[in-house]
Amino acid sequence: MATAIEFNNISKIYRLGLVGTGTLAHDLKRWWTINMRGKEDPYLTIGETNDRSTKGESEYVWALRDIDFKVEQGDVVGIIGKNGAGKSTLLKILSKVTAPTTGTIRARGRIGSLLEVGTGFHPEMTGRENIYMNGAILGMTKAEITKKLDEIVDFSGCERYIDTPVKRYSSGMMVRLGFAVAAHLDPEILVVDEVLAVGDAEFQKKAIGKMQDVSRGEGRTVLFVSHNMAAVRNLCKTGIVLHNGSVVFSGTTDQAIEKYLSNDRLKDQIIDNPAKTHPRLNVQKILINGTSLSNSTLTPTNGALDVLIEGDAEKISNADASLIFRNNDGAALARFSFSDKRGLLNLDGHFCLSAKIKLPPNMHAGRLKVDIAIHQPNVEFYFVARECCMLEVEGYTPVTGQLQPISSGLLSLAEE
User: Fold this and answer.
1) Contact, 17 vs 76, CB < 8 A?
2) What is the dihedral of CA 178, 116, 329, 341, to 10 degrees?
3) Is 0.90 topped by the overall pTM?
4) Which of 4, 15, 329, 379 fits a disulfide with 221 by CB distance 3.0 to 4.6 angstroms?
5) pLDDT tens-digit series, residues 232-291
6) What is 172-186 written as a DSSP string?
7) Residue 403 — very low, low, confident or very high, per pLDDT cuts 50/70/90?
8) What is residue 343's predicted lDDT score, i.e. its pLDDT?
9) Is the pLDDT of residue 365 over 80?
10) 16: which DSSP letter?
């Protein structure tokens, strides 16, 4: 099968700080070094890894570093990684929004891109005018665009506003029209960033279906960036994981998701970076099966899981502590609540909550995410840690006992 896209040693360096500060001196130094002395660009040797969580010494950072991979024609590739990993920068270079600092990209055919809300749209022009403008940019004739116009408008669901300037569109409408334009104007390569998250559930399903048709039925190539692992698994054949501007994994979609979800969490603590805290509650320790690490291999003992939560509280009454177990796609599977057996909690001063949770008999080996929360039901959350622990569950002999269905449709886990 022919290669649709080839990335050769792609790197991109950015200078931090205010744009225009000292750039003339740096440009002169670069020109003198490269053109007069015949040496390498001096600023390529001083850049640092693009780790947004730490403060570096250099004012230059590598958004991308030495990217090398190929994409075959008709393939659907998911590019995943945490915020700041370099995903959008890579797609912008492919779409020629920005140029690489080093390296080359070879792409066969026209590229249709949906990188940001409103990409390629002029706000003063109507939706119809923007469709024609985008088609012209892709090299299509007016007759070819007109032939596709009704299909684009129908897919976007924006027919009533098609002759209204797009500056009056909502972000969801903009994404709808933008995707419809990118997908229907016959590009050989379709590039879609995380912007589909702006659309509603119905449109996201519709857009993913269209990308599947584009790749499988029409043999076009798709590059898809998303933090929605269910969408990546459903759509993509292969996956690439970026971390701090470098490719750390390339392989099947399932393997890429597994690598992404486990990457860089071995040293994290369960209580690190909670989504919600409260001045009247200080959670000091959370242990699951005796470990405080957020990435652990769980080997249940007789189908049970030991949980301990310890901290200090100031006059918190009618409280509950809950654990939600999710699969790799983020779908909630089961819930455990401390109040199910012992009633609502009154926390004042130092507290220590411990429980041995029965895992459901039908739970198979695999990876689970765990959310932990301390809250006053239907009133207020005092502590929330989302996906704070990732557990690799190994197979075990099922235990007896019935699971209690609850109103949300989750399985309610019992306490031993």
Assistant:
1) no
2) -110
3) no
4) 4
5) 888 888 999 988 888 888 999 988 887 887 664 444 556 666 777 888 888 888 887 776
6) HHHHHHHHHHHHHS-
7) very low
8) 87
9) no
10) -
Sheet arrangement for strand 221-225 = 111-114, 189-192, 221-225, 76-80, 238-243, 246-252
Residue type present at position 263: N
**In terms of pLDDT, which residue wins out, 410 or 256?**
256
> How deeply is 14 buried, as exposed, middle or buried, from its count of CB atoms within 10 A (0-12, 13-18, 19+)?
middle
The set of residues, in sequence order, having a beta carbon less than 8 Å from that of 235 and lying 6+ positions away, is 76, 78, 208, 211, 212, 222, 224
Q: Residue 57 — φ and ψ, nearest 5°?
A: -90, -30
Q: Give 85: exposed, middle or buried? Use CB within 10 Å, 0-12, 13-18, 19+.
A: buried
d(CA 151, CA 146): 10
Contact indicator for 84, 52 with CB cutoff of 8 Å: yes
- Cα–Cα distance between 389 and 296 in angstroms, integer? 8
Helix (H), strand (E) at residue 25: helix 23-31
DSSP-H helix ranges across 107-252: 127-137, 142-156, 171-184, 201-212, 229-235
**CA R_g for the chain:** 26
Q: For 265, how many CA atoms within 13 A lie in the half-sphere containing its CB?
A: 23
CA distances from 276 to 52, 347, 397 (A): 22, 18, 37
3-class secondary structure, 304: strand
3-state secondary structure of 33: helix
Sign of CA dihedral 154, 160, 162, 165: negative
**What pLDDT was estimated at residue 193?**
79
Looking at per-residue confidence, does 95 or 114 come out higher?
Answer: 95
d(CA 243, CA 42): 25
